[in-house]
Each structure stands twice: as structure tokens, then as C-alpha cells.
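Researcher: We're teaching a course module on how sequence relates to structure. For the next exercise, students receive a sequence and then see the predicted structure as C-alpha cells, so they can try to spot secondary structure elements on their own. Here is the exercise chain.
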Amino acid sequence: MPNCLDTTRADLPAEQLATPDQRPAADVVIYDGKCRFCIGQIQRLARWDRGGRLAFLSLHDPLIAQRYPDLSPEQLLSDMYVVDRRGVRHRGAAAWRYLACRLPRLWWLCPLLYLPGSLPLWQWLYRRIADRRYRLAAGESCDDGSCRVPGKP
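Model: And here is the predicted structure for the students to work with:
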């Protein structure tokens, strides 16, 4: 079976994503760098970010503990986070909602994502996808258990 860390089919290798050090004024997207599905979504965001508004950091990077000691490994494995330039943490569906309004390519989603009272629905949908993210990567899995979402079978 393929290894979750293998990103050879990805368009933009994770090491080519802009880092917070390269873009200190950017919003920081914290993602699961061992998840092919997540990496694919982050690469798409990076391609759509023509204005250099985003920087990316894998939750497995040692810098996470230094930069964001308030975010536990369990929180980071459970949800994608976006830390905006003011330091506000957006997680899960709220992070995608925030990003949709930051990237011109996604602006068309803003009215839909910001319908009054809709965040619980988006969070429910996000949770369904996040809990299955390793299986969504073309049915691939990891034999060593490194791709298991904590608290999920």
C-alpha cells in the first residue's frame, strides 16, 4: 500500500509551499502534512493564492509548538486551522469560510458559507470529510497506523 507521506503525484511539493518565515504578514494555514487529501487541498489553495496572502505549515512541523503552543496536537489533527494576521484562530469549516473570503477565486462561495445560522451545517459537513480524509485520498491507507485520525477507527 502507498505511504501517506508519498506526495509524488502532487502538483506542488509541500517543501515548495510558502512558509510563515517567507511571508511574515500572511495568514498561516496549518494542515495535516501526512494526509494526501489535505496536501491536495492545500496545493490547490496555494495555486489560487496569487496575491501571496497565505503561508503554510504542516501540523507535524516542530515550529508549530513554538509558534502556537496554545494549539494541542489533538486539536491540530482534528481540524485544519488558519491563524490570521491578527492571531485569531479559525478552525474547520470556519477556516474554509475565512479562506473563501480571502481568495478571489473563492469569493463566489462567501454568500453561501455566510448564510445566517449555516455554520453548524458546514461544521457537520467538514467533520464528515475530516474524519474520513485518509480514505478519501484515492482509497489509500497507511499500514503503520500513522494516518489514523485520533479517536476514530
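Model: If you want an answer key for the exercise: The chain has a mean pLDDT of 81. Strands lie at 27-31, 54-58, 81-83, 89-91.
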